[in-house]
Design goal:
By secondary structure, the protein is of the alpha+beta class. Among the domains are: 310 residues, Beta Barrel (Thrombin, subunit H), CATH 2.40.10; 102 residues. The protein is built from 23 helices and 21 strands. Strands 2, 3, 4, 5, 6, 7, 8, 9, 10, 11 and 12 form an 11-stranded antiparallel β-sheet that branches. A hairpin with a 5-residue loop joins strand 19 and strand 20. The two termini are 31 Å apart.
Length: 684
Amino acid sequence: MLRSRLVLPLLSCILINTSDSSRADEGMWLFNDLPQELLKQKYGFEPTPEWADHLMKSCVRFNVGGSASFISSSGLVLTNHHVGSDTLYKLSTPERNILDVGFLAKTHADELKAPDLELNQLVNIKDVTAEVKGSVTADMTTEQAVAARRAIIAKIEKSELDETGLKSSVTTLYGGGRYHLYQYKKYTDVRLVWAPETAIAFFGGDADNFEYPRYCLDACIFRVYENDEPAKIEHFLAWSKDGPKENDVTFVSGNPGRTSRIHTMDAIKYQRDRYLPYVMDILRRQEILLQQYGLRGKEQARRAREDLFGVQNSRKARLGMLAGLQDPQVLEDKAAAEKSLVEAINADPKLKSLASAWQTISETTKKRAEILGTGVAVHSQLFGIALQLVQMAEEDQKPSGERLPQYADAGRESLLQQLYSEAPIYTDLEQVLLGDSIARTLEQRGFDVPLCQQILAGKSPADRAAELITGTELLSVENRKQVAAGGIEAIRQSTDPLIQLAKIIDPEVRRLREITDQLDEQDKQAYAKISEARFAIQGTSVYPDATFTLRLAFGPVRGYEQDGEMIPAWTSIGGAFEHEKAHAGQTDYSLPESWKKAETKLNKTTPLNFVSTADIIGGNSGSPVVNRAGELVGLIFDGNIQSLSGNYVYTDKQARCVSVHSSAIREALKVVYGADAIVKELEK
């Protein structure tokens, strides 16, 4: 599954490639700089400004990580079941587990309001490169550069918010070579309309995750509201009746998370040898912990499910990334490309000074390796709330431009929406997660370290976690609001044990944050030099790194060869029933009763899933797949195992993105779920 989950921070990067037509399917392209010539040369297609604008404004981004699209004039939004699962989990109860049994609202009144979901519709992009880069001068120290860049970005975002009312966010592109302002219309009243059972949405479970062929209806539908009424939407995607044919070019519009394709070799080796193994060790530990907690009972398994899915998904994805970096051919190709670029730079007197960028990145990479694992990673929702309250009170004493970016004025509404969420928090799970993360901190930092002794307060990790969770009042949203309203004085006077712990840990968090910010700034300046050199050598018709902002990818529907066998581009609804029979007795391969009851009524030849060569990555989950006419033909939900190296390198030999076919969604809505009203709304 390709939802972007912020389990652990990933390093920023840049990505630039040549515009060679033989690699035309590579690229996550900016909507304000589409590859017109590439599309014309390879597919005879020239997207008009109107086509691009309509597609851009038909798409939305989920604040929990993932993409989606409007599919009706009355605010219907289509995304993946696994993107919506965060909300499905929060809306579920022991008596009504929506994740398991699914949901269908027969009327608008039946639609369930998400407790803290925010959807962002991109409506405008501005180039603010001159303003941002102009704020940093050559004589500044790294610390001064961080402060100057942070201040100008905060100023731009707040000014644009005040002027337009739109959520405004400055995005770093080409590692610091360009800066664009993305302006979004926010929807915060979002309600669940339909979700299938997990048994069909994630048919095959973890075993089939990142594999192909697949047989999943990984889809769900929400609706956005304004003023307590379904929103009136101008830009939405028409539903294709037939979907794509094999070799038809398709277009994916979504928000890919992060890529690292143009990391220098030193940065790549750090990812391969240190960072990814470190992350995977953490994920394996979390996976075992959540599995053990889930064995306590049915309700505990339900409570742990969403976290467990996220951890397993992240672990498998990173395993694929690591495999890509352990392929000698991949590294040889990247090393050769880097050598060629450096030689070209050194051969040009005007560019030669830019070659120092590689040494800078080598030095910052060594420093990143030194601090890896030296932080205090306390895993708990309630502790996260406490730390946020402590930091917000401290940061609010500063002008907006001097604060940590997440506490700047421009993002305050979104911040408070999450902070004041009414979503359930389970204290028994919190104790387990907090206790283990404290234990892990002791293992990394050392039991006798003063900070660790302060965290423990004379108790074992488990006993300390129990004391903290049972003693906190932060389960109450009203209490959170009171503390936030009281500012720094409320924090100083608070006796809440989690706030007290956050006050102990915050200085260390800030110390490491300062180091990381300075390393990031050095990398920005270095990669900006590399970008300048590449622009000079290759021209400017290149795509930047993925940044969880809206991009366009494209490629034909096409199967592939694996182990001497041709893997077809399509699976069918009938194939799902056959897949179940082939795995009889295995829980993850059992279709829901609703599908078994409807089996004789379903058109089993209906395509269910299909693959294409479009260039996607985590964060693209829920992205609409459209045809030349801009009609919705599919819904991205996964990539095959061969695609996971796409964080570092693109190939269309075997790597494929996997989509739910539009015809399958319609067939299921009509035949299995009796959602005639939704189908009628889609076909207007």
